[in-house]
Write a structure and sequence with these properties.
The complex is a heterodimer of chains A (93) and B (138).
Chain A: H1 2-9, E1 14-19, E2 24-32, E3 38-45, E4 57-62, E5 67-71, H2 79-92
Antiparallel strand pairs in A: 1-2, 1-5, 2-3, 3-4
Chain B: E1 2-6, E2 9-12, H1 26-32, E3 38-43, E4 48-52, E5 61-67, E6 70-77, E7 86-92, E8 104-105, H2 108-116, E9 121-122, E10 125-126, H3 129-132
Classes of the chains: A alpha+beta (93), B alpha+beta (138).
Domain Sm (chain A): 2-76
Subcellular location (chain A): Nucleus
Keywords (chain A): mRNA processing, mRNA splicing, Nucleus, Ribonucleoprotein, RNA-binding, Spliceosome
Amino acid sequence: MLFFSYFKDLVGREVTVELKNDLAIRGTLHSVDQYLNIKLENTRVVDQDKFPHMLSVRNCFIRGSVVRYVQLPPDGVDIELLHDATRREARGG
Amino acid sequence: MQRRLDSSSIVDLHQGRSWHYLMKSPEDIYLSTSLDKKLLVLLRDGRKLLGILRSFDQFGAYERVIVSDLYCDIPLGLYVIRGENVVLIGELELEKEELPPHMTPVSEAEIKKGSEGGEGCYGSQGYNEKKDGISGYD
C-alpha cells in the first residue's frame, strides 16, 4: 500500500512510464489504484517512430503488471518521507 | 452455480449459458468512461487490437498488423479480452491521424509475407510480434 499512497500524492505530476515491452509513455498522472494500474492523460510516446500505432493516443490506461519503471520528477521524491514510510511498513505491516 | 474466473468476469455455468458481468475492476472503471470510444488495446503477445467499445457498427474489432512502413487491418468481429492479456488501453482521438502519413495500407497477404520474411524494421532494429510482447514476468 506504500507506493499506492505515494503515487496518489503524485497525481497531477508529469511522469514517464516504461513498460516491459520497452514502450515508454510520458504523461500526466491522472489516477492510480491498489494494483498500481496507472491512468495517464495528455500522453506522448517517447520514441514515437518505433511505435506508430500510438500516434493519436492521448489518454491511456496501463495495467500495473506490465510496468517496468515509473520515472518521476526529482522534486516529486521526498527521500525522508519515503524512508519513514518504509520503516513503518516494515515494522507494522 | 457461478464460478469466478478472475477479478473482472463471472461466468454462470448453471444454465449452460455465459454472461460476462464486469465487476468493479480497474479496467472496468476505465472502460465505462470509454463507452462508444475508439480504443487501441495492446496485448501481451504484441498484438494491437482496435475497435469501438460496446457499440454496434459494421466494423467491430480489428487487428492492425504493422510491418515496417506497411500496415494491414484485419477485421475480427466481437472480441472479449481477458484482463491478464492487456498491456495498455489507449483512447484514439477521432479526428486525429492514427498512423504517421508515410505508412501505407496493404493487403493481408502482403503483410503476412512481410512479417514472415523478417523484413520489418523500425530504424535499425527488427520488428516482430514476440519482441513487442511481454512474456510472463520479467
